């Protein structure tokens, strides 16, 4: 494939990031910081940005290989870590907050709904872009039937998504407490590495909203199998990270020394 096609994919992803940043600025300008509305808008914008870029990353992976996919994903993850603020575009982070007493069930449900709306609705924009076929890699992709990325038994897929999500969340929590130099870059590298490791097995989504926006209803698994792998698997992994990270033995391994949790220092 030509480098022109890769350049067009790159331009599309950069354009999505710029558009999302403009949308965040407008949301901040027209809505007060208090209340749920700006929070939900930020989640919807972050999810739309995430899913739009990841739709195009599918094109990159299919035509330029997993290595190119990994480089783009790493750079995008670093960027998102800098601009998303309190948004996560991922429902299980809010579930973790609820377990830690930082959020309510109502807020978890509303944030998840906003993320699903942003992630699923943005496909129409991506589809129109593909329909124009600016690049040879987009030919026939706008209305092509999608195929699932799940290449293993659904229960094994759920275990892979769950274990990788657990490792990813434990790494994030560890980095958050240790706060090393280049913390966000290290976190992005770990996340990207886990995605690449799971890529040929479950797809390496580690995010129920992202998986649903990109692969719901695709040929290769049933809707129930999709829920088992990408919702139950990932969410269980994330939820397990909360009590595991509190365990003294785990903290000693991850942090090097036994340290009290931040919320107990105060």
The coarse overall form would be: globular
Strand segment tally: 0
| SS strand fraction | under 5%
Query: How many domains, in number, for the residues?
Result: 2
- Average residue pLDDT: 92
Radius of gyration, CA atoms, in whole angstroms: 19 Å
Ends distance: 56 Å
The main sheet comes to: none
Low-confidence stretches: none
* SS summary, helix count: 12
Following the backbone from N to C, one meets helices and strands in this order, namely HHHHHHHHHHHH
The helix content, as a percent range, equals over 70%
- Structural class by sheet pairing and helices: mainly alpha
Describe the structure.
The protein contains 12 helices and no strands. The chain is an all-alpha fold and 266 residues long. It has 2 domains: 1-144, no CATH class; 146-256, no CATH class. α1 packs antiparallel against α2 (37-64), α2 (37-64) runs antiparallel to α3 (66-83) and α2 packs across α5. Keywords: Membrane, Repeat, Signal, Transmembrane, Transmembrane helix, Transport. Its main location: membrane.
Task: Produce the secondary structure layout.
Blueprint: H1 3-30, H2 37-64, H3 66-83, H4 91-99, H5 105-121, H6 123-132, H7 154-178, H8 183-198, H9 208-215, H10 223-246, H11 248-255, H12 262-265
Q: Keywords for this structure?
A:
mainly alpha; single chain; Aquaporin_11/12; 12 helices; 266 residues; Aquaporin-like
Put the structure in a nutshell.
Residues 1-19 form the signal peptide. The protein has twelve helices and no strands. With 266 residues, the protein is mostly helical.
């Amino acid at each position: 494939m030509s480098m022109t096609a890769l350049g067009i994919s790159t331009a599309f992803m950069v354009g999505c990031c710029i558009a999302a940043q403009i949308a965040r600025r407008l949301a901040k300008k027209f809505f007060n910081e208090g209340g749920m509305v700006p929070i939900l808008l930020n989640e919807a914008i972050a999810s739309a940005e995430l899913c739009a870029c990841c739709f195009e990353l599918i094109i990159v992976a299919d035509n330029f290989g997993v290595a190119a996919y990994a480089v783009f994903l790493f750079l995008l993850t670093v960027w998102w870590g800098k601009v998303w603020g309190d948004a996560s575009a991922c429902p299980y982070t809010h579930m973790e907050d609820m377990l830690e007493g930082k959020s309510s069930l109502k807020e978890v449900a509303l944030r998840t709904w906003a993320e699903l709306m942003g992630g699923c609705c943005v496909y129409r924009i991506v589809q129109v872009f593909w329909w124009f076929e600016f690049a040879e890699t987009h030919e026939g992709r706008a209305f092509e039937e999608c195929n699932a990325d799940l290449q293993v038994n659904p229960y094994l897929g759920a275990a892979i998504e769950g274990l990788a999500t657990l490792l990813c969340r434990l790494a994030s929590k560890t980095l958050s407490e240790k706060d090393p130099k280049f913390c966000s870059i290290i976190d992005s590298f770990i996340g990207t590495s886990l995605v690449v490791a799971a890529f040929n097995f479950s797809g390496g989504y580690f995010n129920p909203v992202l998986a649903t926006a990109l692969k719901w209803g695709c040929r290769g698994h049933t809707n129930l199998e999709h829920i088992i792998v990408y919702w139950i698997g990932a969410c269980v992994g994330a939820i397990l990270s909360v009590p595991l990270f509190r365990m003294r033995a785990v903290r000693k391994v991850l942090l090097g020394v036994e340290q009290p949790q931040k919320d107990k220092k105060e």
